Amino acid sequence: MKRVSFAAFGGPDVLRLEDAEEPHAGPGQIRIAVRVAGVNPIDWRIREGQFQKTRPIALPAGVGQDAAGVVDEVGEGVEGVEAGDAVFGRGSDTYAEFAVLSAWARMPENLTFEEAAGYPSVMETALRIIRQVGVQSGQTLLVSGASGGVGSAVLQIARDRGIKVIGTAGAANQDYLRCLGALATTYGKGWVERVRELGRVDAALDLAGSGVIRELIELTGDPQKVISIADLGAPELGVRFSGDTGNVPQALAEAVDLISRGKLHIPVEKSYPLAEAAAAHIDSRAGHSRGRRVIVV
After folding, report:
1. Model confidence at 281, in pLDDT bands (50, 70, 90)?
2. Does residue 288 carry a pLDDT above 80?
3. Which of 34, 44, 209, 283 is deepest in the core (most CB within 10 A)?
4. CA pair distance 167, 269, nearest whole angstrom
5. Angle subtended by helix axes 120-133 and 149-161, to nearest 10
6. Which residues of 257-295 are buried (b: 16+ CB within 10 A; e: fewer)?
7. Whole-angstrom Cα distance, residue 157 to residue 186?
8. Using 50, 70 and 90 to split pLDDT, how confident is the model at 255?
9. Which residues pair with 73 in a beta bridge?
């Protein structure tokens, strides 16, 4: 089979499309014929070696953790799914023709493979950081870098839970944030004052890693009310960096529920062929996205 891998840490040029042995489902796992793989910032962060001190990996290594596809192998002890089922979920080395998933859900009938591949990590992350920051119905959550995949999910989950959201994004994405129910403003000079004009902030999320941790602490009044998923230096200012993994099966179940109720839709901004994984990483790292990027296998 074909898969994308890298033998050294570095820029996107280290990625290679190579022939590899097919993986097989172990106990509690399934294997899918991958139709589409999700592209997440963690993919290029791992490729760059950013997590080697905390979560080291051996090289050479595959890339990707999200995918949607068709089940073709079911591991020991797995029930409720069989060969031929269309599923989406999280596993390992998903930029490939076949991948093993450790958490999955059946795809809603109205979802395409391209759409489904963008949900697993995005939903797990969004639900985790909303829980960790402790924001409740009736309160206001500030989301810095709100137009990407995680931001899109956070805004829609918050709206469903009765949480008011103020979102910051580029000028081109202001209407998009408003369509998702947020009060929108641009980042850049004067953004803190613009946020204050929109109302009190009870909690804040840093999704872009654009050096705004001090300002988010200022707006909330407490570093414990701020969570970052993008700034590795956040703990130096007393802010939690959330890079752990929560309950993925629960996140997938909630995604299915919200999608089926018409309460969640994350657009696919761009699709790339497997051979152009490097271009997907370059664009993902550049940010300024609206929704998700995916790789079509």
Report:
1. very high
2. no
3. 34
4. 19
5. 50
6. ebbeeeebebebbebbebebbbbbbebbeebebbbbbbb
7. 22
8. very high
9. 31
Amino acid occupying residue 71: V
Nearest to 206 by CA among 195, 193, 215: 215
DSSP-derived secondary structure letter, 148: B
The DSSP symbol for 12 reads G
Give the per-residue pLDDT at 109: 87
Which tokens go with 175?
A: 């209407």
Q: Among all chains, which residue has been given the structure tokens 């703990």?
A: 235
Alpha carbon of 293 to those of 35, 148, 223: distances in Å? 14, 9, 31
Instruction: Please tell me the predicted confidence (pLDDT) of residue 244.
Output: 79
- Taking the C-alpha atoms of residue 229 and residue 198, their distance in angstroms, rounded to an integer, is 24
State percent of the chain over pLDDT 70: 100
- Buried b or exposed e, range 162-175, using 16+ CB within 10 angstroms: ebbbbbbbbeebbe
121 and 38 Cβ atoms separated by less than 8 Å: yes
CA distance 103 to 157: 21
Whether 46 and 68 have beta carbons less than 8 Å apart is answered as: no
3-state SS string for 194-248: HHHHHCCCCEEEECCCCCCHHHHHHHHCCHHHEEECCCCCHHHHCCEECCCCCCH
Peptide bond before residue 249 is cis, with ω within 30 degrees of 0: no
Neighbours of 42 (CB within 10 A): 18
Contact 175, 146 (CB under 8 A): no
pLDDT at 202: 98
User: Where do we find the tokens 């599923």?
Assistant: 87
Q: How far is CA 48 from CA 15, 61, 103, 143, in A?
A: 11, 12, 26, 26
